[in-house]
Amino acid sequence: MTASRDDLRPLPALAHDVAGDAGAPAVLLLHAGVADHRMWDAVAPALAHAFRVIRPDLRGYGDSPLLVDGTEYTNAGDLADLLDELGVADAVVVGASFGGKVALELATAHPGRVRELVLLCPAAPGVPDTAASDAFDEEEARLLGAGDVEGAVRLNVTTWLGPDADDAARQALTVMQRRAFEVQLAADAAASAAGLPEPGPRPVEIDLGAVHVPTVVVEGAHDMDQLRACARHVAASVPGAELSVLDWAGHLPVLERPDAMRALLLDVLRDDPTVHAP
């Protein structure tokens, strides 16, 4: 029998970084699926002057290992537990890519914990794959199947960073993606050796129409077509959501132009939330 996180022992807490005044409004920064909490390094200090900034590593990334004992969990449940641990009732949730999808899972499963959403090139359910996304998935699977982890890292860096990314951004993403592969492949091997299912979170069904918090969606003009469609789908489906298209951005604008994204985030977070309300 597979253990459920809802009825057995508490799970190990997510590794996380916290900065800012404990009494300030909380901002939860959720990283992309090719990164970890370090992707926010260039913007978090500026946000921490006015907000309590929380940067977790989701399980399988950075310093948060995957569970390999068969215990079930959800990313949304992990985040709700982390907010409980920190004494945070609710937060503005900023999610990049996969982190944007996790933010929507949190808003669906624990709506009272989310005060506002800022979704940067989010992944989302209900959007068909494209020739480009299929080709990427097939090439990544081929490289990993051949044991060429460094090749898979390079593929991700080349695919997901836009034209404005500098060498420092490419190196930072290389380090984070390599770490994610190390953590995930080690967990897969351990689970396989123990005869257990492949580790990973239990999915949470997202109902975009039931998300009733102020929501800002960012789309990168140089992002993959499937991810651009995801951003537009979310913006069209969440009541009252605003869509902003960055003509210079690829999939990871926080890494590509941190100064511009620092200004954008401060502008959104300091704005009167009723401006964005449904």
Automatic annotation (TrEMBL):
Matching Pfam families: Abhydrolase_1 (PF00561)
Keyword terms of this UniProt record: Hydrolase
InterPro entries in the record: AB_hydrolase_1, AB_hydrolase_fold, AB_hydrolase_sf, Epox_hydrolase-like
GO cellular component terms attached to this protein's record: membrane
Gene3D superfamilies in UniProt: alpha/beta hydrolase (3.40.50.1820)
Keyword flag tRNA-binding: no
Annotated ranges, domain AB hydrolase-1: 25-169
Keyword Hydrolase: yes
GO terms assigned for molecular function: hydrolase activity
Protein name per UniProt: Pimeloyl-ACP methyl ester carboxylesterase
Organism name: Krasilnikoviella flava
Source organism phylogeny: Bacteria, Bacillati, Actinomycetota, Actinomycetes, Micrococcales
